[in-house]
């Protein structure tokens, strides 16, 4: 059965590859900012908004490949009820990390599967992380070392890199933090015969 990841995310691709899945990665051209703005304007819960984003990506690719099993995913970082987007540049990442410093935040991570022209399954994970009270000097060094990587995630960090040193506490499935809750996804794919049980 043809499996497609509706994403260009390197970390999501790496997670599926590490789990031994054979799949294609196809970009899903959706206006994420417009979807988020609409969700906020409607007062939508963050888990619902993350699912809507994941669903939009999977649906877009499913229209062109209805015979395939399509995986869509998205993630919204929430701190003190504020939704965070990927920082546009290093200075935005600096401001972002200063707002998160010494506070807990959630990475609300949704995954959706489309089959035969409709959404067949979805799951939302909510890992909780707490940043430590790092110094401005550490922040400067962190941004200098991470460079462009800080613009690739909603948290401006990579736990598989130096970003781990920003944290004081982490609760939740590691793969969900990286953008794709693999344990529930793999269970669904096994239960429905997409991959061997």
Shape: globular
| Total of DSSP H or I helical runs spanning 4+ residues | 7
- The residue ranges in which pLDDT falls below 50 over 5 or more consecutive positions are none
Q: Tally of extended strands?
A: 8
Q: Could you state the order of secondary-structure elements as H and E?
A: EHEHHEEHEEEHEHH
User: How far apart are the first and last residues' alpha carbons, in Å?
Assistant: 14 Å
Largest sheet: 8 strands, mixed
- Helical content, roughly? 25-40%
Mean pLDDT: 96
C-alpha Rg, in Å? 17 Å
In terms of DSSP E residues, the strand content is 15-25%
Category from helices, strands and their pairing: alpha+beta
Could you please describe the fold and organization of this structure?
There is one protein chain. This protein is an alpha+beta fold. 38% of the residues lie in helices and 24% in strands. The protein has 7 helices and 8 strands; from the N terminus they run E-H-E-H-H-E-E-H-E-E-E-H-E-H-H. The chain has helices at residues 10-18, 32-41, 46-64, 90-100, 136-146, 174-177, 182-191, and strands spanning 3-5, 24-25, 69-79, 82-84, 104-115, 118-125, 128-131, 167-171. Strands 1, 2, 3, 4, 5, 6, 7 and 8 form an 8-stranded mixed sheet that branches. Helix 2 (32-41) runs antiparallel to helix 3 (46-64). The longest helix has 19 residues, at 46-64. It starts with a strand and ends in a 6-residue tail after the last helix. The mean pLDDT is 96.
